[in-house]
Backbone:
């Protein structure tokens, strides 16, 4: 299991950006270098999903997390009235970087 | 100029999705294979930008346009009150495909 790429998914919904940022920071702390988290969102939450990815990589996990893939797609959902609607979706994959080589400071 | 990658940019704002879809279909008709259109959006319009890209590639320009790149970023904007705010942005690059080889049907 250790050599398998573990994919952790965080679904971005209607909560504030900071709620998802904190959830990801916590989850990232349990990952080893090379492991990934996938942020997923649909519809209007797509903008918030991009916000979360940007806040993470530019502030809270700067130097620790990098965006390695962004995919968009269309999902066919059935509403409560039985009608089907298309909704756009996004998946942003973040990977934990290797820690910076501390030895270079000691040389 | 003909061998230069011409980049046409469409800014996605508050209009309905169909307005941008139609603008892109029109612009795509003027492109030759390999040329690109870049869809750009900021903030809440990011979701709409993804909608436009999906509607184009899955319906109106299916088989003609393909998504070749998606980039997200943060822009530092100054509001009317002089305060600076960060806003997320997206850029989706669509490329015109080569027309399908019609000769295969005649073989």
Residues:
């Amino acid at each position: 299991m250790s050599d398998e790429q573990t994919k952790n998914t965080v679904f971005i919904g209607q909560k504030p950006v900071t709620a998802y940022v904190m959830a990801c920071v916590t989850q990232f702390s349990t990952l080893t270098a090379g492991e990934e988290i996938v942020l997923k969102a649909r519809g209007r939450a797509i903008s918030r999903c991009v916000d979360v990815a940007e806040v993470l990589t530019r502030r809270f996990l700067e130097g620790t997390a990098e965006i390695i893939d962004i995919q968009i797609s269309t999902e066919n959902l059935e509403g409560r009235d039985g009608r089907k609607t298309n909704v756009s979706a996004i998946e942003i994959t973040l990977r934990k970087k290797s820690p910076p080589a501390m030895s270079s400071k000691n040389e």
